[in-house]
Amino acid sequence: MVHAEPALIASDVRDRLVVVTPWYPTASNPYGGAFVRETTRALLSHFPDPLVVHTEVRALDAEPVAASRGVVDGLDVLHLPVPMDPLTPRARVAELVRDALAPYAQALAEAEVVHVHVGMPTGWAVVDLLGDRTRVVVSEHASYLNKLWALPESEAMYARTVREAALVTAVGQDTTRALQQRYPDVADKVHTVPNPLDVERFVPGDVPPTNLHRWLYVGNLLEAKGVLRLVRAFAAWHEQRPTATLTVAGGGVDADRMRALAAELGVADAVTFVGRVAPAQVGELYRDADVLVHLSVAETFGLTAVEALASELPVVATATRGGVRTLDVAQDEGMARLVPVGDGVDDVIAAVRDLEERRASARPWLVRDDLAVRFGTGPVAAVLADALRGAPVDEPAPDAPLVVAVALHGSAVPGAARVVRDAVRRGARAVLVADRADELADELDLDHRVQRVDVSPVRARLLSHRMEKWVLDAVPRTLIRAAGPVARAAGRPQAVDAALRRQQRLSARWKQVVGRPGHARIDPGALARVVARESAALVADPVLVTWGHAQGRPLAERIAQRSPGATVVQDADLDLVSRLVAGARSAR
């Protein structure tokens, strides 16, 4: 085991932010862990003098590297190599990382806060060393949690990490939800904080491409990243477009397999491998490409896809947990298409062709602006700094602008979900008014910040619904059951069951033919009066109210009556939501 001298971490750590990470850019791997560096840089305005401790897991037969400390790219970095066999079990990896950090435990305990990237191996190692001697916040990026949880030893270690850390953040909502469901006793200290992105670092090309001939891949060259499927998909595209090219940026154990497959499929001359590219140069690759194709099996966030979109480059990616949420706005605006995880190439070709056909109607600038709001360096750093210092995390201010989306018809639900989603991402308060609102929130995976008003109980209390239930169901079924003794005495006990079935059919038919159209006319006005009155405090003073379908219009207009300045529209896109929320915030 190679250790740094204790003097490398001494009293100068006191009252500073210390970042402990298993991934960080090095001379041999300039892109590895770049997101950790960017996250730490983003925090400089909040923690001006952080120390980064890079516990690099290295193969035993790799060239020996001594521990060292110095200023790298403007950050104070301690590089601490941890040699081990590549097949070392994950639990043992965590123990070896802990042992490497052990000589510096006392110094680390004097930090203002220790920000640890990933729960295993580094999160457990730090928690085991420091206990409650200082504040420890763990940020989870890993896509391999299920593998950790499948082994009793590593699962127990991970559970201890989550429970003993002061706070746990995850870069994606799916990971947050998985952690909350796995550890419900501490669910309230698990929050979503995405990776930050310096959008201004990525400059769009001068002319948007019309034909998506120049494919690009940026990332590790691993089968788990879908690189072999990428080559097969490109070969199929190249067969249709002989001038097409594929540029592959990155390194990894499957690089030779990619080259061999490209040669086997006859596209070796059209595929260029440029190796690992430093983050400062990756923007040029995006500007020189027409489409990024990234077919990873699993992603918690998908940084390269976000970087590409910041460069206004269309993206085809897999529908991983991270991709579904990170790229949702890009899909709406014609800048991204998601394909199923798997081996197929036809869906990849169809996705590229669809993006190509939609280029004229796509709004890349709106996607870029959305990325700046959701993942921009400043907004994410502010949320993460609050998390590190123990302030409330990612909750809208009580006086934030309010957006209300009414969805009283099934066709209005998708649009309402987009409106409230976009509103909370911009720091607004948002309310969804719908039948089964709580169930819809789960089905649509809405942010926890969206408040809900369920109109189902109100609808059931309306006189028209109570009369229908009484006349069509309660009274007839009571009378039929009362006739049971007479039927049995006459030797026809089955007559009661037959009558109940007939009554049920007639009731269902009446509701379908007469009741439903009748309720469609009566309910909107009645619901508007009751819901607006009973939920007055929750929906007071909105800047925007949407109604989606004619059934929701009376309620939307009644909600807006007390707010003459509110905008009331059937549907609202991202641009309108953004302008109204920003305008209301600046006015206040």
TrEMBL record:
It holds the Pfam family Glycos_transf_1. GO terms for molecular function: glycosyltransferase activity. Residues 63-201 form the Glycosyltransferase subfamily 4-like N-terminal domain. The keyword Glycosyltransferase applies. It comes from the Bacteria. Keywords: Glycosyltransferase, Transferase. Residues 215-359 form the Glycosyl transferase family domain. This is Uncharacterized protein.
